[in-house]
Amino acid sequence: xxxxxxxxxxxxxxxxxxxxxxxxxxxxxxxxxxxxxxxxxxxxxxxxxxxxxxxxxxxxxxxxxxxxxxxxxxxxxxxxxxxxxxxxxxxxxxxxxxxxxxxxxxxxxxxxxxxxxxxxxxxxxxxxxxxxxxxxxxxxxxxxxxxxxxxxxxxxxxxxxxxxxxxxxxxxxxxxxxxxxxxxxxxxxxxxxxxxxxxxxxxxxxxxxxxxxxxxxxxxxxxxxxxxxxx
Length: 231
Hints:
Blueprint: E1 4-9, H1 13-24, E2 29-35, H2 38-48, E3 52-56, H3 64-72, E4 83-88, H4 93-102, E5 106-109, H5 114-125, H6 133-144, H7 150-160, H8 172-182, H9 187-194, H10 198-212, H11 217-226
Parallel strand pairs: 1-2, 1-3, 3-4, 4-5
């Protein structure tokens, strides 16, 4: 099995150390490079072409949003295949929408738990977005207001023609799983909290996606929040 190749662009030494420590414990992940500023980070990405770049939004020489924009602007070059996972302390609308407009693939808060970060990296590497639950709420609010953002537009298009969804469409256990999905929990964490196997969790997640006509966990979370399936 090939490893997920990861580069970290983060100026805070302790945060970078914490991320590095978490990733080094996983057999399916490999850290190929680190940088503490945007200039060196962009050079590193061009040379190493990682699968996922974890980019701090508050870099000293250039913010992570502009870095993301430059990464995604390299269309036609090999670097375009790198997925960008934004890491930030900010959950305000301006930062969130600016990041996704720049082309960010996923958005995590810096206080994210290690297991959730690992799950976010895996989901991002697979080509799917991962969004913190608080960020999902912001995205949903903007989608309902029909503001201009590529991710907001796609979510708005996805949900606008859907009929209202009632909680009774899901079983009591599926609602429990759904609530944990919205909180950003991985399958392993859901299994641990509900005292069931990971295989059973996967079955519940698949059933939830089918019942809600969703393609991934992010769409599941957005539908759940939009239609009040979870608090």
